[in-house]
Design goal:
Radius of gyration: 23 Å
CATH architecture of one domain: 3-Layer(aba) Sandwich
CATH topology of one domain: Rossmann fold
Number of helices: 17
Number of strands: 26
Strand content: 25-35%
Structural class: alpha/beta
Shape: globular
Oligomer: single chain
CATH class of one domain: Alpha Beta
Helix content: 25-40%
Distance between the termini: 63 Å
Low-confidence stretches: none
Length: 507
Protein backbone atom coordinates (compact mmCIF):
# COMPACT_ATOMS: atom_id res chain seq x y z
CA UNK A 1 0.00 0.00 0.00
CA UNK A 2 1.37 3.40 -0.93
CA UNK A 3 1.06 6.20 1.61
CA UNK A 4 -1.45 8.96 0.98
CA UNK A 5 1.32 11.43 0.13
CA UNK A 6 3.07 9.04 -2.28
CA UNK A 7 -0.23 8.46 -4.07
CA UNK A 8 -0.88 12.21 -4.30
CA UNK A 9 2.65 12.73 -5.63
CA UNK A 10 1.71 10.47 -8.55
CA UNK A 11 -1.69 12.10 -9.08
CA UNK A 12 -0.59 15.74 -8.59
CA UNK A 13 3.16 15.84 -9.27
CA UNK A 14 3.26 19.60 -9.84
CA UNK A 15 1.12 20.65 -6.86
CA UNK A 16 2.60 22.44 -3.86
CA UNK A 17 1.35 20.40 -0.91
CA UNK A 18 2.41 22.75 1.87
CA UNK A 19 4.17 26.07 2.12
CA UNK A 20 5.08 28.55 4.79
CA UNK A 21 6.55 32.03 4.45
CA UNK A 22 10.04 30.69 3.67
CA UNK A 23 9.68 27.46 1.69
CA UNK A 24 7.38 25.06 -0.16
CA UNK A 25 7.15 21.29 -0.59
CA UNK A 26 5.47 19.01 -3.10
CA UNK A 27 3.69 15.78 -2.17
CA UNK A 28 6.78 13.63 -2.85
CA UNK A 29 8.81 15.72 -0.39
CA UNK A 30 5.98 15.58 2.14
CA UNK A 31 5.87 11.80 1.77
CA UNK A 32 9.61 11.47 2.41
CA UNK A 33 9.67 13.82 5.41
CA UNK A 34 6.60 12.34 7.10
CA UNK A 35 8.04 8.85 6.70
CA UNK A 36 11.35 10.01 8.18
CA UNK A 37 9.62 11.64 11.15
CA UNK A 38 7.41 8.60 11.81
CA UNK A 39 10.24 6.08 11.44
CA UNK A 40 12.56 8.24 13.54
CA UNK A 41 10.04 8.28 16.36
CA UNK A 42 9.32 4.56 16.07
CA UNK A 43 13.01 3.97 16.78
CA UNK A 44 12.83 5.87 20.07
CA UNK A 45 11.39 5.12 23.50
CA UNK A 46 8.16 7.14 23.62
CA UNK A 47 7.22 5.94 27.09
CA UNK A 48 4.14 4.01 28.21
CA UNK A 49 1.77 6.63 26.74
CA UNK A 50 3.64 6.91 23.41
CA UNK A 51 3.76 10.68 23.82
CA UNK A 52 5.80 13.45 22.18
CA UNK A 53 5.54 17.26 22.42
CA UNK A 54 5.87 20.05 19.84
CA UNK A 55 6.96 23.44 21.18
CA UNK A 56 7.47 25.64 18.12
CA UNK A 57 6.07 28.55 16.14
CA UNK A 58 4.13 28.02 12.90
CA UNK A 59 6.23 26.49 10.13
CA UNK A 60 6.24 23.49 7.78
CA UNK A 61 8.39 21.59 10.28
CA UNK A 62 5.83 22.18 13.03
CA UNK A 63 3.12 20.64 10.87
CA UNK A 64 5.38 17.73 9.88
CA UNK A 65 6.32 16.96 13.50
CA UNK A 66 2.65 16.96 14.51
CA UNK A 67 1.43 14.83 11.60
CA UNK A 68 4.50 12.58 11.61
CA UNK A 69 3.91 11.93 15.29
CA UNK A 70 0.35 10.84 14.54
CA UNK A 71 1.60 8.47 11.81
CA UNK A 72 4.04 6.98 14.33
CA UNK A 73 1.15 6.10 16.62
CA UNK A 74 2.17 8.81 19.08
CA UNK A 75 -0.06 11.08 21.12
CA UNK A 76 1.17 14.60 20.36
CA UNK A 77 1.17 17.40 22.93
CA UNK A 78 1.07 20.83 21.20
CA UNK A 79 2.71 23.31 23.61
CA UNK A 80 2.02 27.04 23.59
CA UNK A 81 5.25 28.65 22.34
CA UNK A 82 4.75 31.67 24.62
CA UNK A 83 5.23 29.61 27.80
CA UNK A 84 8.19 29.89 30.13
CA UNK A 85 10.60 26.99 30.65
CA UNK A 86 9.03 26.14 34.03
CA UNK A 87 5.52 26.11 32.54
CA UNK A 88 6.69 23.84 29.70
CA UNK A 89 8.49 21.55 32.14
CA UNK A 90 5.26 20.95 34.05
CA UNK A 91 3.43 19.98 30.84
CA UNK A 92 6.24 17.66 29.74
CA UNK A 93 6.33 15.94 33.12
CA UNK A 94 2.55 15.69 33.51
CA UNK A 95 2.04 14.36 29.98
CA UNK A 96 4.87 11.83 30.12
CA UNK A 97 6.33 13.08 26.83
CA UNK A 98 9.69 11.57 25.90
CA UNK A 99 10.61 13.57 22.77
CA UNK A 100 10.38 17.35 22.32
CA UNK A 101 10.48 19.28 19.04
CA UNK A 102 11.57 22.94 19.15
CA UNK A 103 12.57 25.79 16.82
CA UNK A 104 15.13 28.55 17.17
CA UNK A 105 12.75 30.75 19.19
CA UNK A 106 11.92 28.03 21.73
CA UNK A 107 15.13 25.95 21.79
CA UNK A 108 16.67 27.43 24.92
CA UNK A 109 13.44 27.19 26.95
CA UNK A 110 12.75 23.72 25.53
CA UNK A 111 16.15 22.30 26.49
CA UNK A 112 15.81 23.75 29.99
CA UNK A 113 12.29 22.32 30.34
CA UNK A 114 13.40 18.92 29.03
CA UNK A 115 16.11 18.74 31.70
CA UNK A 116 13.36 18.94 34.35
CA UNK A 117 11.31 16.12 32.83
CA UNK A 118 11.64 12.62 31.38
CA UNK A 119 12.26 13.91 27.85
CA UNK A 120 15.36 12.18 26.48
CA UNK A 121 15.55 13.75 23.01
CA UNK A 122 15.15 17.39 21.96
CA UNK A 123 15.06 17.90 18.18
CA UNK A 124 15.25 21.42 16.77
CA UNK A 125 15.03 23.21 13.42
CA UNK A 126 15.48 26.72 12.07
CA UNK A 127 19.11 27.07 13.08
CA UNK A 128 18.51 26.00 16.69
CA UNK A 129 21.58 24.46 18.28
CA UNK A 130 23.00 23.50 21.62
CA UNK A 131 24.78 20.80 23.56
CA UNK A 132 21.61 18.86 24.32
CA UNK A 133 19.79 19.45 21.04
CA UNK A 134 19.70 17.25 17.92
CA UNK A 135 19.49 19.23 14.66
CA UNK A 136 16.32 18.44 12.69
CA UNK A 137 18.10 17.77 9.39
CA UNK A 138 20.59 15.39 11.01
CA UNK A 139 17.81 13.59 12.87
CA UNK A 140 15.81 13.14 9.65
CA UNK A 141 18.90 11.96 7.74
CA UNK A 142 19.48 9.22 10.31
CA UNK A 143 15.97 7.87 9.68
CA UNK A 144 14.59 5.88 6.76
CA UNK A 145 12.20 7.37 4.16
CA UNK A 146 10.45 4.02 3.75
CA UNK A 147 6.77 3.66 4.52
CA UNK A 148 6.11 3.14 8.25
CA UNK A 149 3.63 0.51 9.42
CA UNK A 150 0.02 1.66 9.28
CA UNK A 151 -1.57 -1.02 11.46
CA UNK A 152 -0.87 0.76 14.76
CA UNK A 153 -3.73 2.38 16.70
CA UNK A 154 -3.97 6.19 16.33
CA UNK A 155 -3.66 8.16 19.54
CA UNK A 156 -5.37 11.52 20.09
CA UNK A 157 -3.55 14.71 21.02
CA UNK A 158 -3.22 15.66 24.66
CA UNK A 159 -4.12 19.34 24.95
CA UNK A 160 -3.31 21.63 27.87
CA UNK A 161 -5.59 24.45 28.95
CA UNK A 162 -4.84 27.15 31.50
CA UNK A 163 -5.87 26.19 34.99
CA UNK A 164 -7.93 27.88 37.68
CA UNK A 165 -5.30 26.97 40.27
CA UNK A 166 -2.20 27.98 38.41
CA UNK A 167 -1.45 24.64 36.77
CA UNK A 168 -2.67 23.77 33.26
CA UNK A 169 -4.97 20.79 32.82
CA UNK A 170 -4.37 18.12 30.20
CA UNK A 171 -7.35 16.92 28.21
CA UNK A 172 -7.38 14.34 25.41
CA UNK A 173 -8.63 15.54 22.02
CA UNK A 174 -12.32 14.57 22.24
CA UNK A 175 -13.88 11.95 19.95
CA UNK A 176 -15.89 14.68 18.22
CA UNK A 177 -12.62 16.11 16.86
CA UNK A 178 -10.58 12.93 16.43
CA UNK A 179 -11.16 10.82 13.33
CA UNK A 180 -10.71 7.58 15.29
CA UNK A 181 -10.29 4.22 13.55
CA UNK A 182 -8.67 1.00 14.74
CA UNK A 183 -5.46 1.67 12.77
CA UNK A 184 -3.52 4.61 11.36
CA UNK A 185 -4.69 3.56 7.87
CA UNK A 186 -8.36 3.70 8.97
CA UNK A 187 -7.74 7.01 10.71
CA UNK A 188 -6.42 8.61 7.52
CA UNK A 189 -9.42 7.36 5.56
CA UNK A 190 -11.71 8.83 8.24
CA UNK A 191 -9.91 12.18 8.03
CA UNK A 192 -10.98 12.43 4.39
CA UNK A 193 -14.58 12.57 5.65
CA UNK A 194 -13.96 15.77 7.61
CA UNK A 195 -16.23 18.67 6.52
CA UNK A 196 -13.10 20.84 6.37
CA UNK A 197 -11.69 18.58 3.63
CA UNK A 198 -14.41 19.66 1.18
CA UNK A 199 -13.47 23.29 0.68
CA UNK A 200 -10.12 23.39 -1.06
CA UNK A 201 -6.74 24.73 0.04
CA UNK A 202 -6.45 25.52 3.74
CA UNK A 203 -4.87 28.62 5.27
CA UNK A 204 -3.36 28.28 8.74
CA UNK A 205 -3.40 31.70 10.43
CA UNK A 206 -3.62 30.80 14.12
CA UNK A 207 -0.87 29.16 16.20
CA UNK A 208 -0.77 25.39 15.84
CA UNK A 209 -0.90 24.82 19.57
CA UNK A 210 -4.62 25.64 19.19
CA UNK A 211 -6.85 22.79 18.10
CA UNK A 212 -8.46 24.53 15.10
CA UNK A 213 -5.27 25.57 13.26
CA UNK A 214 -3.61 22.24 14.07
CA UNK A 215 -6.59 20.30 12.72
CA UNK A 216 -6.39 22.44 9.58
CA UNK A 217 -2.72 21.63 9.06
CA UNK A 218 -3.41 17.93 9.56
CA UNK A 219 -5.80 18.04 6.61
CA UNK A 220 -2.72 17.18 4.56
CA UNK A 221 -3.56 13.58 5.39
CA UNK A 222 -6.90 14.10 3.63
CA UNK A 223 -5.13 15.41 0.52
CA UNK A 224 -5.79 19.08 1.30
CA UNK A 225 -2.87 21.37 0.51
CA UNK A 226 -2.01 24.02 3.10
CA UNK A 227 -0.50 27.48 3.38
CA UNK A 228 0.96 28.31 6.80
CA UNK A 229 1.39 31.88 7.99
CA UNK A 230 3.72 32.65 10.88
CA UNK A 231 2.25 35.39 13.02
CA UNK A 232 -1.06 36.86 11.91
CA UNK A 233 -0.90 39.94 9.73
CA UNK A 234 -4.09 41.25 8.12
CA UNK A 235 -2.71 42.19 4.71
CA UNK A 236 -0.52 39.06 4.53
CA UNK A 237 -3.68 37.05 5.12
CA UNK A 238 -5.56 38.83 2.33
CA UNK A 239 -2.59 38.40 -0.02
CA UNK A 240 -2.34 34.68 0.79
CA UNK A 241 -6.06 34.10 0.17
CA UNK A 242 -5.82 35.83 -3.21
CA UNK A 243 -2.46 34.42 -4.35
CA UNK A 244 -3.05 30.82 -3.29
CA UNK A 245 -6.80 30.63 -3.95
CA UNK A 246 -7.58 29.65 -0.37
CA UNK A 247 -10.86 27.78 0.12
CA UNK A 248 -11.08 27.52 3.91
CA UNK A 249 -9.52 28.56 7.19
CA UNK A 250 -10.07 28.72 10.95
CA UNK A 251 -10.05 32.17 12.56
CA UNK A 252 -11.09 33.98 15.75
CA UNK A 253 -13.04 37.26 16.03
CA UNK A 254 -9.83 39.20 16.76
CA UNK A 255 -8.64 38.30 13.25
CA UNK A 256 -11.86 39.76 11.84
CA UNK A 257 -11.42 43.02 13.77
CA UNK A 258 -7.89 43.44 12.41
CA UNK A 259 -8.95 42.54 8.87
CA UNK A 260 -11.75 45.12 8.98
CA UNK A 261 -9.23 47.75 10.08
CA UNK A 262 -7.40 47.40 6.74
CA UNK A 263 -8.07 50.50 4.59
CA UNK A 264 -10.65 50.03 1.83
CA UNK A 265 -8.12 50.75 -0.92
CA UNK A 266 -5.91 47.91 0.39
CA UNK A 267 -8.85 45.50 0.66
CA UNK A 268 -9.79 46.15 -2.95
CA UNK A 269 -6.39 44.91 -4.13
CA UNK A 270 -7.24 41.31 -3.17
CA UNK A 271 -9.82 38.84 -4.49
CA UNK A 272 -11.67 36.86 -1.80
CA UNK A 273 -13.92 34.92 -4.18
CA UNK A 274 -12.11 31.58 -3.66
CA UNK A 275 -13.28 31.37 -0.04
CA UNK A 276 -15.86 28.70 0.67
CA UNK A 277 -15.78 28.25 4.44
CA UNK A 278 -14.32 30.17 7.38
CA UNK A 279 -14.81 28.46 10.73
CA UNK A 280 -14.48 30.82 13.67
CA UNK A 281 -13.89 29.75 17.22
CA UNK A 282 -12.86 31.31 20.53
CA UNK A 283 -14.96 34.16 21.89
CA UNK A 284 -18.41 35.09 20.62
CA UNK A 285 -18.10 37.38 17.61
CA UNK A 286 -19.58 40.90 18.03
CA UNK A 287 -22.69 41.36 15.89
CA UNK A 288 -21.38 44.39 14.00
CA UNK A 289 -18.10 42.62 13.21
CA UNK A 290 -19.86 39.51 11.90
CA UNK A 291 -22.24 41.59 9.75
CA UNK A 292 -19.29 43.46 8.24
CA UNK A 293 -17.37 40.25 7.46
CA UNK A 294 -20.38 38.61 5.80
CA UNK A 295 -20.91 41.75 3.72
CA UNK A 296 -17.26 41.62 2.63
CA UNK A 297 -16.54 37.88 2.19
CA UNK A 298 -20.06 36.58 1.74
CA UNK A 299 -22.00 33.96 3.77
CA UNK A 300 -18.99 31.65 4.20
CA UNK A 301 -18.76 31.75 8.01
CA UNK A 302 -19.53 28.95 10.42
CA UNK A 303 -19.41 29.69 14.15
CA UNK A 304 -18.10 26.63 16.00
CA UNK A 305 -18.68 27.31 19.71
CA UNK A 306 -17.11 24.93 22.22
CA UNK A 307 -13.90 24.13 24.07
CA UNK A 308 -10.79 21.97 23.80
CA UNK A 309 -12.19 19.57 26.39
CA UNK A 310 -15.30 18.66 24.39
CA UNK A 311 -14.93 20.07 20.87
CA UNK A 312 -17.75 21.98 19.16
CA UNK A 313 -20.98 22.04 21.15
CA UNK A 314 -22.97 24.58 19.08
CA UNK A 315 -22.77 25.59 15.44
CA UNK A 316 -24.40 28.17 13.20
CA UNK A 317 -24.02 29.01 9.50
CA UNK A 318 -24.00 32.54 8.10
CA UNK A 319 -27.50 32.09 6.70
CA UNK A 320 -28.83 30.96 10.09
CA UNK A 321 -26.95 33.73 11.88
CA UNK A 322 -28.45 36.45 9.67
CA UNK A 323 -31.87 35.21 10.84
CA UNK A 324 -30.68 34.90 14.45
CA UNK A 325 -27.98 37.60 14.81
CA UNK A 326 -25.81 37.20 17.89
CA UNK A 327 -26.53 33.50 18.36
CA UNK A 328 -23.79 30.85 18.56
CA UNK A 329 -26.23 28.36 17.07
CA UNK A 330 -27.96 25.20 18.15
CA UNK A 331 -26.35 22.33 20.02
CA UNK A 332 -24.99 19.63 17.73
CA UNK A 333 -24.64 15.89 18.35
CA UNK A 334 -23.79 14.43 20.77
CA UNK A 335 -24.65 17.52 22.86
CA UNK A 336 -27.89 18.96 24.19
CA UNK A 337 -27.98 22.57 25.45
CA UNK A 338 -29.86 23.61 28.59
CA UNK A 339 -30.27 26.82 30.57
CA UNK A 340 -30.29 26.30 34.34
CA UNK A 341 -30.81 28.53 37.38
CA UNK A 342 -28.44 28.64 40.35
CA UNK A 343 -30.08 25.52 41.79
CA UNK A 344 -29.63 23.62 38.48
CA UNK A 345 -33.32 23.78 37.59
CA UNK A 346 -34.25 24.23 33.91
CA UNK A 347 -35.38 27.70 32.83
CA UNK A 348 -37.99 28.47 30.14
CA UNK A 349 -37.07 29.81 26.68
CA UNK A 350 -35.71 33.37 26.47
CA UNK A 351 -34.76 33.35 30.16
CA UNK A 352 -31.15 34.11 31.07
CA UNK A 353 -29.30 31.56 33.16
CA UNK A 354 -26.23 29.35 33.24
CA UNK A 355 -25.51 27.46 30.02
CA UNK A 356 -24.92 23.71 30.42
CA UNK A 357 -24.51 20.87 27.96
CA UNK A 358 -25.36 17.20 28.23
CA UNK A 359 -23.14 14.79 26.32
CA UNK A 360 -25.54 11.98 25.44
CA UNK A 361 -22.59 9.57 25.22
CA UNK A 362 -21.91 10.24 28.91
CA UNK A 363 -18.29 11.31 28.27
CA UNK A 364 -18.44 15.04 28.93
CA UNK A 365 -15.21 16.65 30.10
CA UNK A 366 -12.15 14.44 30.71
CA UNK A 367 -8.91 15.60 32.35
CA UNK A 368 -5.63 13.67 32.14
CA UNK A 369 -4.52 12.01 35.38
CA UNK A 370 -7.11 14.03 37.31
CA UNK A 371 -10.29 12.07 38.10
CA UNK A 372 -11.23 14.60 40.79
CA UNK A 373 -11.05 17.50 38.30
CA UNK A 374 -13.06 15.45 35.81
CA UNK A 375 -15.74 14.84 38.45
CA UNK A 376 -15.76 18.52 39.51
CA UNK A 377 -16.44 19.59 35.91
CA UNK A 378 -19.89 17.92 35.97
CA UNK A 379 -23.11 18.48 37.88
CA UNK A 380 -24.40 15.09 36.68
CA UNK A 381 -22.90 12.33 34.48
CA UNK A 382 -22.02 13.95 31.15
CA UNK A 383 -23.52 17.35 32.15
CA UNK A 384 -21.00 20.21 32.15
CA UNK A 385 -20.65 23.95 31.60
CA UNK A 386 -18.15 26.14 29.77
CA UNK A 387 -18.83 28.92 32.24
CA UNK A 388 -21.21 31.06 30.16
CA UNK A 389 -24.45 32.85 30.96
CA UNK A 390 -26.95 32.62 28.11
CA UNK A 391 -30.55 32.21 27.03
CA UNK A 392 -32.09 29.89 24.44
CA UNK A 393 -35.00 30.79 22.19
CA UNK A 394 -37.96 28.59 21.30
CA UNK A 395 -36.09 27.16 18.30
CA UNK A 396 -33.08 26.12 20.39
CA UNK A 397 -30.71 28.89 19.28
CA UNK A 398 -28.29 29.84 22.06
CA UNK A 399 -27.37 33.48 22.82
CA UNK A 400 -24.41 34.07 25.16
CA UNK A 401 -24.70 37.20 27.31
CA UNK A 402 -21.95 36.93 29.96
CA UNK A 403 -19.62 34.61 31.86
CA UNK A 404 -20.03 33.29 35.38
CA UNK A 405 -16.60 31.66 35.48
CA UNK A 406 -13.49 33.78 35.98
CA UNK A 407 -11.99 32.77 32.66
CA UNK A 408 -11.61 35.47 30.04
CA UNK A 409 -11.05 35.02 26.32
CA UNK A 410 -8.49 37.41 24.83
CA UNK A 411 -7.79 37.13 21.13
CA UNK A 412 -9.01 33.52 21.18
CA UNK A 413 -6.75 32.54 24.10
CA UNK A 414 -8.29 31.38 27.38
CA UNK A 415 -6.85 33.14 30.42
CA UNK A 416 -7.58 32.23 34.03
CA UNK A 417 -7.04 35.28 36.27
CA UNK A 418 -6.08 33.02 39.18
CA UNK A 419 -2.70 32.33 37.56
CA UNK A 420 -1.73 36.02 37.61
CA UNK A 421 -3.31 36.57 41.02
CA UNK A 422 -1.22 33.82 42.59
CA UNK A 423 1.94 35.44 41.26
CA UNK A 424 1.06 39.06 42.04
CA UNK A 425 -0.03 38.44 45.64
CA UNK A 426 3.65 37.80 46.41
CA UNK A 427 4.73 41.23 45.16
CA UNK A 428 6.01 43.11 48.23
CA UNK A 429 3.87 46.15 47.43
CA UNK A 430 0.59 44.23 46.98
CA UNK A 431 -1.77 43.65 49.91
CA UNK A 432 -4.63 42.13 47.94
CA UNK A 433 -5.35 41.50 44.26
CA UNK A 434 -8.12 40.61 41.85
CA UNK A 435 -7.73 40.27 38.09
CA UNK A 436 -10.71 40.80 35.79
CA UNK A 437 -11.48 40.94 32.09
CA UNK A 438 -12.20 44.38 30.64
CA UNK A 439 -13.18 45.33 27.07
CA UNK A 440 -10.54 45.57 24.35
CA UNK A 441 -11.40 46.74 20.82
CA UNK A 442 -9.32 44.05 19.05
CA UNK A 443 -8.82 41.24 21.55
CA UNK A 444 -12.37 41.25 22.90
CA UNK A 445 -11.08 41.28 26.47
CA UNK A 446 -7.84 41.97 28.24
CA UNK A 447 -6.70 41.29 31.80
CA UNK A 448 -6.66 44.13 34.34
CA UNK A 449 -5.25 43.89 37.86
CA UNK A 450 -7.16 45.59 40.68
CA UNK A 451 -4.63 46.09 43.47
CA UNK A 452 -4.91 47.13 47.11
CA UNK A 453 -1.38 48.41 47.83
CA UNK A 454 0.33 47.75 51.16
CA UNK A 455 1.17 51.44 51.36
CA UNK A 456 -1.69 53.50 49.94
CA UNK A 457 0.47 56.62 49.97
CA UNK A 458 3.29 54.96 48.05
CA UNK A 459 1.91 52.24 45.74
CA UNK A 460 4.26 50.39 43.38
CA UNK A 461 4.46 51.60 39.79
CA UNK A 462 1.99 49.85 37.48
CA UNK A 463 4.83 48.86 35.16
CA UNK A 464 6.67 47.27 38.10
CA UNK A 465 3.61 45.16 38.98
CA UNK A 466 3.15 44.00 35.37
CA UNK A 467 6.86 43.20 34.96
CA UNK A 468 6.83 41.20 38.20
CA UNK A 469 4.16 38.99 36.64
CA UNK A 470 5.91 38.77 33.25
CA UNK A 471 9.12 37.55 34.88
CA UNK A 472 7.22 34.56 36.30
CA UNK A 473 4.47 33.78 33.79
CA UNK A 474 4.13 33.81 30.01
CA UNK A 475 3.22 37.34 28.98
CA UNK A 476 -0.24 36.60 27.57
CA UNK A 477 -1.38 35.46 31.06
CA UNK A 478 -0.38 38.76 32.69
CA UNK A 479 -2.42 41.94 33.18
CA UNK A 480 -1.96 44.75 30.69
CA UNK A 481 -3.01 47.46 33.12
CA UNK A 482 -3.32 48.09 36.86
CA UNK A 483 -5.88 50.09 38.84
CA UNK A 484 -5.34 50.80 42.54
CA UNK A 485 -8.43 50.40 44.73
CA UNK A 486 -9.31 50.66 48.41
CA UNK A 487 -11.61 47.63 48.56
CA UNK A 488 -12.29 44.47 46.50
CA UNK A 489 -15.62 43.76 48.16
CA UNK A 490 -14.64 40.45 49.76
CA UNK A 491 -17.50 38.88 51.71
CA UNK A 492 -17.22 37.26 55.14
CA UNK A 493 -16.01 34.06 53.45
CA UNK A 494 -13.29 35.97 51.63
CA UNK A 495 -14.93 35.61 48.22
CA UNK A 496 -15.01 38.35 45.57
CA UNK A 497 -17.94 39.12 43.27
CA UNK A 498 -16.00 39.63 40.04
CA UNK A 499 -19.12 40.38 38.01
CA UNK A 500 -19.63 43.40 40.26
CA UNK A 501 -15.97 44.45 39.90
CA UNK A 502 -16.21 44.15 36.10
CA UNK A 503 -19.48 46.01 35.68
CA UNK A 504 -18.11 49.63 35.65
CA UNK A 505 -15.65 48.76 32.87
CA UNK A 506 -18.36 47.29 30.64
CA UNK A 507 -20.92 50.10 31.00
Amino acid sequence: MTTFAAKLAQERPEEIAIRDEDKAMGWAEVDEMLNQVANGLLGLDLGPDHRIAVFAENAIETAMANLGGLLAGASVVPVNFHLTADEVAYILQDSGARVLFVDVATAERGVEAASQSEVHSVVGWGGSSGENLIPWDAWLAASTPGEPPSDMPPRPNLLYTSGTTGRPKGTPLPPTMFAGGETIAEHIENMKLSPMAEFGRHLVVGPMYHTGPLSGARLLAAGVSSVILGKFDAEKTLRAIDEHQIGNSVMVPTHFVRLLAVPEEVREKYDMSSLQRISHTGAKCPVDVKHAMIKWWGPVFVDAYGASEVGTTCMITSEEWLEHPGSVGKAIEPFEAMILDDDNNPLPPNTEGRLFFRDITGRGVVYHNAPEKTAEAHIAPGVFTLGEIAYMDEEGFVYITDRFSDMIVSGGANIYPAEAEQVLIHHPGVLDIACIGIPHPEMGEELKALVIPRDADNPPESREVIDWCRERLSHYKCPRSVDYVEDLGRNTMGKINKRKLKAPYWE
